[in-house]
Amino acid sequence: MNRIDTSYRPETYFGPISMAKHLRTRVKGQVRRDLAKSLAGEGLINFLPDLLVEEDLGEEDLADWGKVHPWCLGGEFLPRFERIETEIARVVLMATTFDVTSVYARQRKNRIAYRIVDEYGGETLTAKTRRTSTRPLTLKELVDFLLRGWPFLAVLGMNYNQDTEKMLGFFRGESAFYPGFHEALVERVVERYPLLE
User: Fold this and answer.
1) What whole-number distance in Å separates Cα of residue 168 and Cα of residue 63?
2) To the nearest whole percent, how much of the chain has pLDDT over 90?
3) H helices within 69-151, ranges in order?
4) Which of 41, 57, 72, 171 is the most exposed place for a label (fewest CB within 10 A)?
5) Does the residue 142 lie in any domain?
């Protein structure tokens, strides 16, 4: 397996962003996000319906959207963003409900405040879900923080009991700021549950 640059650090998480980055950092629903990215990739970014680009859906839209398929609700129950806060990474579990766990970052005066959030009011998280830094985290720092705050590796183990191949197909790591985020998670999974030769 190729090693990735875990020392990679983005310049910033904040400032003006393109519509493409908005879709990857502000739209909470995973299926809406995926549909919007797909349409944007086909050159239709200026024609996306409001339903696909809104951060949160209203109760009525959410109820209608959930009737399509349970996957459509994945990510929709993440907490609202606070002022000057954005999502810097997320892990999507390919379960029936497409559960999403995210890392949010918020600019403060001289520091960046981070929090790990889930769709269950924090029930799937541990006590270490917050931290701060003076500059953006390195990829290694981000992954370490996430794994301290959410028992991701244990979740995979409980679902797939040492079947690493199935574990690797059960999740997707995404980040608009860390291009190697998914690969870094894969690396951690394989370290914990080595692939059989």
Assistant:
1) 31
2) 62
3) 139-149
4) 41
5) yes
